[in-house]
Amino acid sequence: MTATTAVHASGLVKAFGAKGAPTVRAVDGIDLEIRRGEIYGVLGPNGAGKTTTLRMLATLLPIDAGSAEIFGVDVRREPHRIRQLVGVTGQYASVDENLTGTENLVLFARLLGQSTPQARRTAADLLERFGLEEAADRQIQNFSGGMRRRLDLAASLIARPPLIFLDEPTTGLDPRTRGQMWETIRELVAQGATILLTTQYLDEADQLADRIAVIDRGRKVAEGTPDQLKQSVGSSTLHLRVADRAEASRAAGIVERVLGEAPVLTPEAGGLHVALTDANQTADVLIALREGVVDITTASVRQPTLDEVFLTLTGHHAEDGSEAASTTEEVA
Amino acid sequence: MTLLTDTPVATAQVAAADRPLPARPSLRATFDQTLAMAWRATKKMRRNPEQFFDVTIQPVLFTAMFAYIFGGAISGSVASYLPLIIPGILAQTALTACMATGIQMREDMDKGVFDRFKSLPIARIAPLAGPMLADLVRYGTAATITIGVGLAMGYRPGGGVLGVLAGWALTIVAGWSLSWIFAWLGTVARSAQAVQGIGMMIMFPLTFLSNAFVPMETLPGWLEAFVRINPVSHVVTAVRDLMNDGAVTGEVGWALVGCIAVVLIFAPLAVRSYSRKM
Predict the structure, then answer these.
(1) Confidence band (pLDDT; 50, 70, 90) for B175?
(2) Which has more confidence, A32 or A235?
(3) Do A94 and B112 touch (CB under 8 A)?
(4) What is the CATH number of domain A5-231?
């Protein structure tokens, strides 16, 4: 723990289990070291333990084993101090359905010690900044998902917390609202906040995070900058489909000659795909195929998906772990 | 809708991470937070007026029903039964209203907004005490309507205006105190339905095995023994003493002691199980 550290956690464990049933270790020994002023992404499929980790750090769940400090304050021993340092925006918007946008923000501001007139100003201010003025006097139950999420984030910012937890802030949002959310998150960092963000989308972690931890079945399986992570699976993948299935293996030979790596074949569809270290290699492959007179029906270059990162890092697909563990996320 | 990028976010600067922070909320802050939570509860009441059914329609129905059905049998006439039954109905309505407090609190706690309450640096008692404070409105409504119906039916309390006011106030205090039991139930029960089920089990014996509707002397000895120690009996007797005789008797003292004891036991239990569960 140094002056540049925002979050320091070691060996975090959370086990869930009904009486009689075997306990499930939703979080199984996670270490985190988050620096001040960075966006730290926690990437993983549903049920990997992302939310549980976040909730333990936010004092919403007791820590079963391990220790955590936020800005040097012990999470277990001083929950009230931690709550003054952390703003939490949940996966499901934690705002009051029965109240209007204004009433929600006024309530939270008053709970945080503002006088009623002050709270009204804060509410009006935040509603304006988040483009929610027209929703000021409407009950939340009539809000769209994106509006709720924005109101929820606005509520998390009332106390101007130096550390903000965002639990899947853009899951279920349309692309435009997602882009806006990303901008807001970048602004918060520009103003000096530190952000811990969970996401299922590699793309989101890539866009926002300075560093990423990949979590699987309660354990951290990799950590690094987005570039480092992507390099571990190749920066992108070339997908090809040959017109004549019989030609697939000949095409694979050509690809291997150009790239020095054997592509993966999906013979039934006449498809093959191979990791690229550089997108420019696409042209070399296509030229070689044309010279070799192999007809292709489609060719595409894709960014590695979360599943591919997972497959590379853990040896299993992201969905494998989700069924057993998704129940624990519900418990959380 | 404006783009979020058009304007700087309201948090022009974030709060310093290394400022000194209080380790626990002050008493003053706890009070303010409780008031804010009570404000939220009153807003909800205004939007869901059906929450008031149990404290408006039920007292009217029960007062009229019990007085006309049992009046002749128990006291010879409806008019002479009223001084007995009105304080009884007051206690019964207060208990029913308590149960609703626990059920609503349980329902509320399952909502997403409680996640935020838990993550805020606020006193753990505020999310419980706030709605309890707002529920004073419900007990007040129930007591006022019951007394009003009684007066309309010909009840002429001997304690005068002051005696009636004192009985009214004692009903509210008793309702509020007992509601901490149901608040605690709300924090330990698995669902709102469970609170309702357990609540009924507590409420029925407590109200019917008391002197709320019949004179104790008419009961068999073993039952009379229970009725005599039933706290509801003490509250009912205290309210009768205040409203019918304008007398501040020992029963009033016992009723108040009972109320304080209930709060002292169940408020900490409720707060503890609330903060632990969450």
Answers:
(1) very high
(2) A32
(3) yes
(4) 3.40.50.300
